[in-house]
Amino acid sequence: MSELNNVSVHEEKSVTSVRSSQYDYTWEINNYSVWSTMVGGAQYSPVFPSGQDEPIQWQLKFEPKSSQKPAFASLFVELVVPILKEDEKFHAGCEITLENVDGTTILEKSFKSDNGWNQGWGWSSLIECEALHQAVMPEDKLIIRC
């Protein structure tokens, strides 16, 4: 409390902080053309954090043939363990890049979400299967960056 001309003035101070986290994850799939024809259904990447020393864990769910549109591949970013209650919101953003072994970008997508994040986010028709097969050749390696 300070005094101004012998008058007491009450002072208050509030601080608001926002924590931001950025993390880059790379998933490489060798022999993509063989792998994509042999696997059935959704395939999951290893689990990765949302940032260094962050407890929130994510994984990519990739379908070489989308269960909704088989002519397309699908890709989703999912929480490993739901962390929210029904009425809570989670703000997140993600940039997804598909590349070939030379680092050439095949496709780039991004999103930001202010919705509940208990499920995940993604694209059921990310890219046509045939276009993806052609784009990864001749090295036959798909690189997914998140």
From TrEMBL:
Residue span, MATH domain: 22-146
Pfam family, one: MATH_2
Source organism, top-level taxon: Eukaryota
Annotated protein name in UniProt: (northern house mosquito) hypothetical protein
